[in-house]
Design a protein that fits this description.
It contains 17 helices and 4 strands. The chain has a 4-stranded mixed beta sheet with strand order 2-1-3-4. By secondary structure, it is of the alpha+beta class. Helices cover 66% and strands 6% of the residues. The protein has 4 domains: 124 residues, Glutaredoxin (3-Layer(aba) Sandwich); 105 residues, Serine Threonine Protein Phosphatase 5, Tetratricopeptide repeat, CATH 1.25.40; 59 residues; 57 residues. It is elongated.
C-alpha cells in the first residue's frame, strides 16, 4: 500500500532500531560501494509522520520489515543502503542528492515510505512503494535483486567464480590476505546465492582468525612482552590484510611507535636482543653475523645500556686474529660477489667491455680464490661470444 503524507512540522529524524540494516553515511559512499560490489544503491525514503489512524508506516517499514533476517541477507548481498529522511531534508539537516531529486516530480508530494533502487551511475532501476510485512516484502525485494544481477556482465560473473576458487585455495594454503581479497572479489561479481553464502562463511572464518591473532597480541602487550606483541601485531596486519582486526593491529603499531615511553621500552628490548644475538654468534664463531649485530646496536641504539657492551665486544673482535681473518673473508666474499653480479648484469645488457672490466677486478683483488676461477670462466665465455 502507498501512503502520501505531507512533509511538514519539526520532528526529529527516525532512530535506528536494534536489528536494522546498516546504512552508508552518505549517498556518495553508497554509490561508491555499489560500484565496487556491482550492487544497486537502495535508497530508503522515510519521514517521521503518521496517517489518520496514527500509523507511522516509515517506522514500521524500517523496524518490522527491513530488520527481518531474511530481508537483511538479500540487502547485504545485492544492495548498498542509504537512508533519505525527508523530515531531515525539510529541516536542512540532510542534503537531497541531485540524483534522487530527479526521481521525484517537482511540486508533487512524495509518498513515504518508498525504496528507490539506482545503479552505480545514479540511474533509477526500480522502486518499491509503501509498507508491507516481511513475508510480502521479501518477494518484491528478491525480484529487484534479480534485476541487479541481470545488470552484471557474464564475463564479470565468470571472473567472480574464478575468484571464489582462488579464495578457497588461498584459505587452504593459509594465505589469508590473498583469500580475503579473492573472496570479496567473488562476492562483488554476482555469483549464485549458494556460492555467495560459502564465500561469506569463509570470510567470517578469516575475520575470526584475525581477531584471535589481534587478541593474542593485546594479551602479550598486557604482559609487558612488547617485542613479542609487536611481532604479533605485525603478523596480524600482514597476514590478514583487509580485515577489521588487521586495520586495528596497524593502528596499534602506529600508536606504539608514537608513544615515547613505549618506544623507549621497545628500543631497550631490541638492543638487548641484538646483543644476545651477537654474543651467541661470537660463541659459534660466526664473526660476520656478530659484527653486523654489534654495528646495528651502535648505529640504532647508541644511547642504550647495551651500547657500551657492544663497543667492548667490537674491540675484542678487532683484536682477535681469528675474528679479523673471518671478517676479512666475509668482506672479500661480499665484494667479489658484488663485482661478479655487476659483470653479469653488463653481460646480459650486451655491454661486454664493461662486463670484462668487472671480471678483471675480481682477478686482481681476489686471486687464488673460487671467485677468481668463476671470473676466468666468465671471461672465457665472453671471448667465445665475440
Amino acid at each position: 500500500m502507498s501512503h502520501r503524507l505531507a512533509v511538514c512540522g519539526a520532528l526529529a529524524a527516525l532512530a535506528c532500531s536494534a536489528g536494522e540494516i546498516e546504512y552508508h553515511a552518505s549517498f556518495e559512499a553508497a554509490l561508491e560501494a555499489a560500484g565496487k560490489s556491482k550492487q544497486l544503491v537502495m535508497v530508503v525514503v522515510v519521514a517521521a509522520a503518521t496517517d489518520a489512524q496514527g500509523r507511522d508506516f516509515s517506522k514500521m517499514l524500517r523496524e518490522e520489515t527491513l530488520s527481518d533476517a531474511e530481508i537483511g541477507k538479500v540487502v547485504q548481498r545485492h544492495f548498498a543502503p542509504f537512508l533519505l529522511d525527508l523530515r531531515a531534508v525539510n529541516e536542512k539537516k540532510q542534503a537531497m542528492p541531485e540524483a534522487l531529486r530527479a526521481c521525484f516530480k517537482p511540486g508533487e508530494p512524495i509518498g513515504v515510505p518508498q525504496v528507490i533502487f539506482l545503479d552505480a551511475k545514479g540511474k533509477e532501476v526500480d522502486r518499491l512503494a509503501g509498507y508491507a510485512p516481511p513475508i510480502n516484502y521479501l518477494g518484491r525485494l528478491k525480484a529487484t535483486a534479480e534485476k541487479a544481477l541481470a545488470l552484471i556482465p557474464d564475463k564479470d560473473r565468470r571472473d567472480a567464480l574464478r575468484a571464489l576458487e582462488r579464495g578457497k585455495q588461498a584459505v587452504e594454503k593459509e594465505d589469508f590476505a590473498a583469500a580475503y581479497d579473492a573472496l570479496n572479489a567473488a562476492l562483488g561479481g554476482g555469483i549464485p546465492q549458494e556460492e555467495a553464502d560459502a564465500a561469506r562463511r569463509l570470510l567470517n572464518q578469516l575475520e575470526a582468525k584475525a581477531t584471535q591473532k589481534l587478541d593474542a597480541a593485546a594479551e602479550l602487550e598486557g604482559k609487558n612482552k612488547l617485542g613479542s606483541a609487536i611481532r604479533a601485531y605485525q603478523e596480524c596486519a600482514r597476514s590478514f590484510k583487509g580485515t577489521e582486526a588487521a586495520r586495528k593491529a596497524g593502528e596499534r603499531l602506529v600508536e606504539i611507535r608514537k608513544d615515547p615511553e613505549l618506544r623507549k621500552r621497545l628500543n631497550a628490548y631490541m638492543a638487548a636482543r641484538l646483543l644476545a644475538n651477537a654474543q651467541e654468534a661470537i660463541q659459534q664463531k660466526r664473526f660476520a653475523a656478530a659484527a653486523e649485530a654489534l654495528d646495528a646496536i651502535l648505529r640504532r641504539y647508541g644511547d642504550s645500556e647495551e651500547a657500551a657492551e657492544a663497543k667492548k665486544l667490537q674491540e675484542q673482535l678487532k683484536a682477535s686474529a681469528e675474528a679479523a681473518g673471518s671478517l676479512r673473508d666475509a668482506r672479500a666474499r661480499s665484494e667479489a660477489e658484488r663485482l661478479l653480479s655487476l659483470g653479469d648484469g653488463y653481460r646480459r645488457n650486451k655491454m661486454p667491455d664493461k662486463a670484462l672490466a668487472e671480471y678483471r677486478k675480481v682477478l686482481e683483488k681476489f686471486p687464488d680464490t673460487t671467485f677468481a676461477q668463476t671470473a676466468k670462466a666468465r671471461i672465457a665465455e665472453l671471448a667465445a661470444e665475440e
